[in-house]
Write a structure and sequence with these properties.
Elements (H helix, E strand, L loop, with lengths): L3 H5 L4 H34 L5 H51 L5 E3 L5 E3 L17 H33 L14 H20 L7 H13 L4 H23 L8 H4 L1 H18 L5 H12 L4 E3 L4 E3 H6 L9 H18 L7 H5 L20 H10 L2 H8 L2 E3 L10 E3 H8 L5 E3 L2 E3 L1 H16 L16 H14 L3 H7 L2 H10 L1 H8 L37 H12 L2 H22 L14 H28 L5 H9 L10 E4 L2 E4 L8 E4 L7 H25 L4 H24 L6 H21 L14
Antiparallel strand pairs: 1-2, 3-4, 5-6, 7-8, 9-10, 10-11
């Protein structure tokens, strides 16, 4: 398996010589094969053999002739494998060399082990340095190019070495007769062998040994991402075998020790199996199209094991928790599952929990990820949508037919409304108790994907702003529903997901907050938050002037999400970054002549709205703390002090392609916030490189001092610190390199006064009441 230096310095001349030598060997063996077939064998067959020669010599001659033919085939196959491997190695080496060669042009150095770093670190650059200043996106691009080149070489190496071992065979006295036209064909043959071997283990069910389960996992891991292997495996096992296996594996009554003694291995098997089937669904071969249709058709079948049973939808959904399933299959599957659920509940006369938890005594364990048991099929399906943003967006913008089998009764429902409002999510047993927390958690994941255009667990680093008009439609539904009453977010427990989508639309919330009219859906003219002149909104031409959300809708949603700790912290960090990026994009650049008041119009607006936003977020979080904790208690003081800790996010922010990847602080996962320009300017760099560090250091001291104060004084102090944080973009803008002292002082004076006024303005908005759980 070639490493970075192996590939970069590979001398491929010997391999080319081997290809040439084998080409000559093929020619010689083909001549011998022709001579053996037309000469030796033909004469032997015409001869009139008598006695012992008839039973010995003729079979020997036939076998010898066949060996010449097999030798020619084997030599040709070896030549074909070496030839294609040489082509792949050449291409991979060229790709790697180009990545290494182009890196310095971006200000990036690649060391002898393939590790990328700054060619000249920012801390060591001279004051007059005018060379390239790479962004995180540039580093990620170089890493990706290196990774892809190595992957190509390694895949060729693995297939070639396995093919050559197969060609040589284990019989020392006979040629194998195996034929490979190409490296690709050899790879497919290997995939088929692995799929058949894996299917044989599956056929044993829970009678398989732990060693066989380990081998099955190895087959999956070795072929991860290989769609041909995935398709062969899915077809070898079949729809029925797929469903029966998982019921059998989770049957608690049959005495199997696999699940009892080896739950970690079964957990890994579920993940690997799910990833494999996900890859298989992307095949559009007639056989796989039929497989997908049969899986959906089997959804309402009761699949039985020796001591338990489950519906096909319940089983299959637990094999959807990982991987990216094909979009049409997912949406068709979801529509069918909802139709069946409506049928089982008698058009809603029963609750979903009454049908999915019924008749399952003892219930099979269908999910092994240490969460729920997997009884509710919608949980796994929502997880699948969370990994496929395209499918999730389409699904939540669709209308579902609740009675697909009844052509006379077209009862329909909006998919978003059904899952967020109408459906009674079943409770399930999990390691910490009993409830539906994982059901709503999976719903949140699906909504994240549908609104942002990214898989909910995709790394934020290197992401681009993927939002479309269709994503925005889902976000409008999210804002309208979850912004209508705090109980929806709190009772469903999806504040973390709403924080993610709120962060992803921080730009549109700012655009809405600029509008003084609470119900108008038109943006203000010449808004610094709208599209650039001559450009159109990413959400369609109508949104050049139209708002996605009214001011009232924006205030309510932001306020409710900020009642939670993660919502307040993530959206506060996103707001400061977004404000700074607008100032970069819309304000005069450092080095500008004398600044006049009119030059600051756009950046004053950006800072004013940013400050209002911070005011809404801070007051909402403090209001919820007032409701949740007793004043002057240790818990109360700690929670108030933590409202200022979002500044810690600055320790892990990465900028690239118009997106800020917020990865620091105590966020549960990285989130991506849009910026006003594709690449961050000097104000954003100053903000991340200096201002955030200063604030973090100041917070470390003042945050500790806060805890020593009485609650009322502490609360006031926290709001004052919030105001200082809202001013941070102004300091970053004024302190960016290149301003004259006169301009710097003028900018700070003007912007500081703007923040004081707007901070007070933020409390004029009637904010939703804090959430209080019903007794």
């Amino acid at each position: 398996m070639p490493e970075f230096s192996d590939l970069l310095n590979a001398r491929l001349g010997s391999l080319k010589d081997a290809v040439d030598d084998w080409t000559e060997t093929v020619k010689k063996l083909e001549k011998l094969d022709e001579q053996a077939a037309k000469g030796l064998l033909k004469k032997a067959e015409k001869a009139d053999w008598k006695g012992e020669n008839a039973g010995v010599t003729l079979p020997f001659v036939k076998k010898t002739a066949k060996e010449f033919r097999d030798a020619a085939k084997e030599a040709q196959s070896i030549r074909n494998i070496l030839r294609d491997a040489l082509t792949e190695f050449k291409a991979a080496k060229t790709q790697l060399a180009k990545a290494v060669e182009d890196a310095p042009k971006k200000g990036i150095r690649v060391d002898s082990n393939g590790v990328v770093s700054y060619q000249i670190h920012p801390d060591r650059r001279a004051k007059d340095y005018d060379g390239p200043e790479p962004k995180e996106a540039d580093f990620e691009q170089v890493r990706t190019e290196i990774k892809e080149a190595l992957k190509r070489a390694n895949e060729a190496d693995e297939v070639a070495s396995r093919a050559l071992r197969t060609l040589v065979g284990k019989d020392k006295h006979n040629f194998s007769g195996t034929e490979y036209d190409s490296l690709k064909q050899a790879g497919r043959a290997q995939d088929s062998q692995d799929a058949r071997a894996a299917a044989k283990i599956v056929a044993k069910g829970d009678d398989a040994s732990p060693e066989e389960i380990a081998r099955l996992n190895k087959y999956f891991e070795n072929n991860r991402g290989d769609r041909y292997f995935a398709e062969r495996f899915a077809l070898e096992v079949g729809v029925k075998g797929n469903l029966e296996y998982w019921v059998d594996m989770g049957d608690p009554s049959d005495g199997s020790r696999l699940g009892v003694d080896h739950p970690k291995e079964i957990k890994e098997l579920q993940k690997n199996w799910s990833l494999t089937l996900a890859a298989a669904t992307h095949s559009n071969s007639p056989a796989m199209d039929q497989w997908k249709a049969d899986v959906i058709k089997a959804g309402d079948d009761m699949v039985r094991s020796r001591g338990t049973s489950a519906y096909g939808f319940q089983i299959m959904s637990n094999l959807m928790r990982y991987g990216t399933y094909e979009s049409k299959f997912l949406t068709d599957y979801g529509s069918a599952a909802v139709g069946m659920e409506n049928k089982l509940t008698g058009n809603g006369s029963l609750k979903a929990s009454q049908v999915w938890n019924a008749g399952l005594t003892p219930p099979p364990r269908l999910n092994w990820d240490d969460k729920d048991l997997g009884r509710d099929p919608m949980v796994g399906f929502m997880e699948a949508l969370g990994h496929n943003a395209k499918a999730s967006t389409e699904f939540f913008n669709s209308t579902l037919d609740l009675t697909p089998d009844d052509h006379n009764d077209k009862k329909t429902t909006d998919a978003f409304k059904y899952f967020t409002q109408e459906r009674d999510w079943p409770q399930d047993a999990y390691k910490d108790g009993f409830g539906n927390k994982y059901g709503y958690d999976s719903l949140g994941h699906a909504l994240e994907a549908a609104a942002t255009g990214h898989s909910y667990d995709a790394p934020a680093d290197g992401q681009k702003d993927a939002r479309t008009a269709e994503n925005a439609k889902v976000m409008q539904k999210i804002v309208a529903f979850y912004g209508s009453d705090p109980k929806h977010m709190h009772e469903q427990g999806i504040s973390d997901s709403l924080a993610v989508v709120g962060t992803a639309y921080i730009d549109e919330f700012n655009r809405s907050l600029e509008q003084e009219n609470h119900t108008s859906d038109e943006s203000l003219a010449n808004s610094p938050f709208g599209p650039d002149k001559g450009e159109n909104s990413r959400f369609g031409d109508e949104y050049n002037t139209k708002l996605l959300f009214t001011r009232e809708g924006a205030v309510n949603f932001m306020s409710i999400v900020a009642q939670s700790e993660e919502g307040h912290s993530q959206m506060s960090a996103a707001q400061s970054l977004y404000t700074t990026s607008v100032m970069d994009a819309r304000g005069p650049e450092p080095g500008h002549g004398k600044i006049e008041n009119t030059d600051l119009t756009d950046i004053k607006t950006a800072l004013r709205i940013g400050s209002e936003s911070h005011g809404i977020l801070d007051n909402s979080r403090l209001g919820q703390i007032d409701k949740d904790f007793e004043k002057d208690s240790e818990e109360y003081n700690k929670e108030v002090a933590r409202t200022t800790e979002w500044i810690k996010f600055g320790t892990g922010v990465a900028i690239g392609s118009g997106v800020a990847a917020i990865t620091g602080g105590f966020a549960p996962a990285a989130v991506a916030a849009p910026l006003a320009a594709e690449y961050a300017g000097s104000a954003v760099e100053t903000f991340l490189g200096t201002v955030f560090d200063d604030l973090s250091e100041k917070h470390a001291k003042e945050g500790t001092d806060l805890l020593k104060q009485k609650s009322d004084d502490l609360r006031d102090e926290a709001l004052l610190m919030g105001k200082a944080h809202a001013l941070a973009p102004a300091h970053a803008y004024a302190n960016a390199p290149g301003w004259s002292e006169e301009n710097q002082n003028y900018i700070l004076e003007e912007l500081t006064d703007s923040v004081k006024t707007s901070r007070l303005h933020s409390i004029e908005d009637p904010l939703p009441d804090p959430y209080e759980a019903e007794d």
